[in-house]
Structure formats: C-alpha cells, structure tokens
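User: Show me an example of a complex going from sequences to structure tokens.

Assistant: Sure. Here are the input components:
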Amino acid sequence: MNLLLIEDDRDAAGYLVKALTEAGYRVDHAADGRDGLFQATERQYDGIIADRMLPHLDGLTIIEVLRKQGNRTPVLILSALGSVDHRVEGLRSGGDDYLTKPFAFSELLARIEALLRRGQVGPAPVVKLRLADLEMDILARTVTRAGRRIDLTAREFKLLEFLLRRVGQVVTRTMLLEGVWDLHFDPQTNVIDVHLSRLRQAIDKGFNKPLIHTVRGAGYTLRAD
Amino acid sequence: MVYAASFATALVALVFVIYLLTTRFINNEVDTVIERDALSLLEAYGQSGARGITSELTLRASTFSRINAVYLLADSEGFVIAGNLPAWPVMQVRDGSWVEFEIEMREGGRETGRPVRAMVLEPAPGLRLLVGTDLSDRRDLGRRFAFAAGVGTLLVTLLALGIGYGQNQRILARVEAVSRSCKEIVGGNLARRLPLAGGDDEFDALAVEVNGLLARLARTTEILRTSLHSAAHDLRSPMHRMRLRMEQALGVAVTRPERDTLEALLRDVDHMQRVLTALLQIAEAESGTVGARPEPVALDTMLGELGELYQPQAEEQGIALSVRCAPGGSVLGHRQLLAQAVANLLDNALKFTPPGGRVELQSRAVDGRQIISVADSGPGISSEERASAVEPFVRLSNVPPGDGSGLGLNLVAAVARLHGGSLRLEDNRPGLLALLDMPAGSA
C-alpha cells in the first residue's frame, strides 16, 4: 500500500514515515502543499495524509483540486487548529477523514486502515454479514451464532454491524462513537467500553472462540483468529 | 398613551389657571370702572346737587357713555328719580356696599335675567344712588372661554393621542428592527449591522454609534479567532511531536521502569490535550466563533441517544438512569456542542452518584424555552460553592482531582450562553440539579 504524507513539520513527518513504514506501508513525503499536490497527481497512491495548514496550498484545497481532476484517492487531514469546523466535519461524509493533533499513532493507523478499505469496497449493498459462525441479516435485523439466535438491542445491532463491516481492522473508541452514535467528542468515562463488554457478553459468552478482541491501547477488533 | 394623558392633564390645569386669572382681572376691572364712574357722579352731586346728578345720570344712561352701564337714583322709599333701571332692585342701603342682582328684561319676546354688579351710595340722606355694570357680556365671555378651552383641550388631547400613537408605532417598528438585528448578531452573524432609517433622528445617531461598536467587536472577535487558532496550532504541533517521540521511544523501551515512565508521560500529554481542547471549545463558544451554522436540534432524539449511550455505564455502577423528554422540543444550535454539554453533565452525575442512586435526564418546554435538566442523588454542591462551580479550573472541596479537564461545567455554561441560554445549578435535595435553559428553536 502506497501512502503520501504531506506535512511541513519535518520532525513529525520523519517519525510518521518511520512508524508507517514499520507498520508495512510504503510512504512518500512532501514538505509543502504544492509539492504534495504535484506528487499526488503524478503517482497513484492508495491514500494521502495531509496536514491542514501547509505552505502554498492547504490540505483542504488539495482535496478539492484532486476531486476536480477526478482523483478519488482518500485523504486523511491532520489538523492542529482549534476547532473542528463544518468544512473539516464534511470530510467524513465525503469518504475522507480528519484527525486532530496530537493523536495516538494507533488512532492514525486505525483510521488509515479504515480509509483504505473504504476505497476498495464496492457500492453493492450487503444483505448478510458473516464472521466464522456469526451471521447478521441486515434486512431481517437478526443475528445468529452457530445457528443460535442472539437478541440484541437496536444500538448493539448497529455496533456489531459497524464491527462486522471492518473485520480484522482495529476500531478505536472515537471511531465507534462517531460511526455508531455520530458524536464527535471524547467522553471522559469509559461508556464505549461498557457497550463493548455488553456486546461481548451477548455474542461471545458460551462460545469457545471469542470474536471481539481488545487491542491494548488502541481499541477493538472483530476477528475469528 | 400615558404621555398623552399627562399632557392633557397639564393642559387642563393650565387652561383653568388662565381662566381663574382672567376672570379675576375682569372682575377687578369691572369694580374699578364702577368706582370711577360713581366717584365722578358724586362729584357732579357735590357741584350741583340732586339736579346736577339727575341730569348727569339721564345723560349718561341715554348716551351709553359706558358700555353696559346701569344707573339708578332713587329716594329712600325706592321711588325712581332717574336712571335706566325700572325699579330699585335691592334692599341694602348701606353706603358704599357692593351688590349683585339680576334684572328681568324682555329680549326678542323672551324673559332673560341679566346679572348686574353694582355699588350703592348715599350721596345725601334720603337719596340712594346705584352705579353698576350689566355683566351678561362678561358672563357670556366666561362661558365662551370655558367652551373654547374645553373644545381646545379636547382637540389638543386627541391630537396628542394620535401623534403619540403614531410616534409609538414608529418607535416600536424601529426597536423591533434593531432587536431583530441584535438577535442575528448574537446568533453569530457579526457582519450584521443595525438598520438606519435614513433620517437624521436620535435613533440613527445611536445606531451609527452601535454599528461602530459592532465593527470593533467583529474586528476583535476576528483577532481572537485567529489568535486562538495560532495558539492551538503553536501548542498542538510541539505536543504532536512530543507524543510521536514518546510513542517511538516506547516502541524501543526495554525495561519496565522505562515503559512505565513513557506511558505516564503519554497520559500527561493526553491530559494536556484534553485541557487545551476544552479551553479552545470554551473560548470559541464564548466568542460565538463556532464554525458551523446553527441548525434545529431535536432534543428528544438527542437526549434519547445520550441516555442510551450512558445507560450501560449507569447500570454497571448500580445507578438508575431515567430519560424523560417532552416530544417535539428543539433548539436552534450546534448538535455536537449540545450533546457534549449534556454528556459532561451526565459524566459528572454518574461520577458523583453513589451506587443505588439515580440520575434523571429530562427536557421540557416552558414559555418558548427548552429546559434540559440532569438531576442526581449524589452529594450535590453546597450553596456557597455552587456559583464558583462553573468558574474555570475550580476544584470543589469534596472532589478529588481526577483526569478530567476541570472545565466540564465551564464548557456546559459556555455552550448554554452560545445558545442564548444559561446553566443553573440547584439543590436537588439531595444531589445536584443542573438546568440547561435555552430558547426553543423551530424544527
């Protein structure tokens, strides 16, 4: 997977390139907006990570120009600005994403992974989601495991659907809060963890192989091992 | 209306005073004229006796030397000797006394009484002289005066009422226009200015002044916004590098103490980040520079979702969390900020309520306002500390320092103000009752 990092903070960029390379990505770095846009149009990248405030061209303008050229490469905007305004908030509905600095590297990794997967998934509507012996029928709104019906609340269903659409990916707490509740803030208590432990009770209790796994310091992942 | 009424009252009082003064002046005038006339008649008597006065009287009475003059010379029995009265009208005979009486006259086939004021004199024993003035003209004048004053006052009062009403409507319309503009400005549109009527009146003069102030406010707000952004940027960028370096160091750390230290440092950076974010959010909410446009936020939906988000956590803590929302209530504003404000209140309530307690999240409409309340059965906040609880960084005496930003209630209060409302903390007997009171918005 090829990534382009457009970041004028050389120190931060150096660390990110190193960490992303360790995580298995091939990363190019551009130090300003103009170079970044040039590289982004010159080569085909799977994803772009761009700082919001850049010399010459800011990150949001880069997205605009790329989209006008018909380039659909997903972009993750990094912002050190005070507020998350409506322009940035609009990124998530447009298939792009944003992250406020400073962030945990695990959060960045999880978001990039999600962004890259989103770019691959076709628009074909899925009716059934499966993982090992767990099956979800989205239309009938039923969940079974090993043929046994599991009763979930509406929110637990949505939560499980969100995870089932990202099998094998790390999903962070903020991603869950945004994706399942459409809330863009950091609650001080561990409300999300309690929801996850409820869901875990419902689908993993009484089965040998747990499907919901906690990723230490990052979030959760759904996988069959 | 009040002004018109007091104006009319003042006018009536003024006219009455003028009436009193005028009648007194006229009365004095009448008396002076009579006295002068009588004196000259006595002089005539002195010079040529009863004959002289008789001829003088006849002359004066027939030539109308004085308008409305009334004369009568009679003997002590009341027999008329000379003058223009048919008979002696009064009984008093004291020398120099004033009398008032009416004389009957036929005018156009109608009997009318004409008032007379007169002086009675005794030029000589057995001789009585009456010198007076027919007051009917004066009486008519008084009546006309009163009539004119009455009609005049009525007209002026009606006019005052009309003008007052018109003026009132005009002022109301201008105040209305100004108030609309102000609401828009408070709502975040700092480019809005007070409308000018184009005239040269006090309102426009005031509006020009206020507009000058608004321009300054807009400039200051813009400066504040830019400095907030650069402050955020200048703090977040090094924090970002710091965090990345720590994570990298954590990746190569070997010993347990190294790892523990780095993890503690990461927690500190995250805490700093939370405080910074909260500060920026408060500053933005207070200065009304929230990027997004206000939209109708359905409270029942939002609160229902928040209640459901916190339900498992509450159950985990053995707290009964109930949500009761009046359907259809909405507020014009920012959903994310409102949700965060309510979440902060719920966070607090759950943090301080002991197991077995309860937390109630409610919303209700009161007089065009929406009140969201979070009530808990925890220890509450003492009345002395309640006011300072919304001050930045205040740690209450019974609260151990935690990992929160210490700005939770501040943010709630700032969000409330951004929405034109307020945060009130009250005694829930026992516990804390937090009320988020905001004007209702159309959905």
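The lines above are the inputs; the final block is the predicted structure for all two components together. The mean pLDDT of chain A is 88.
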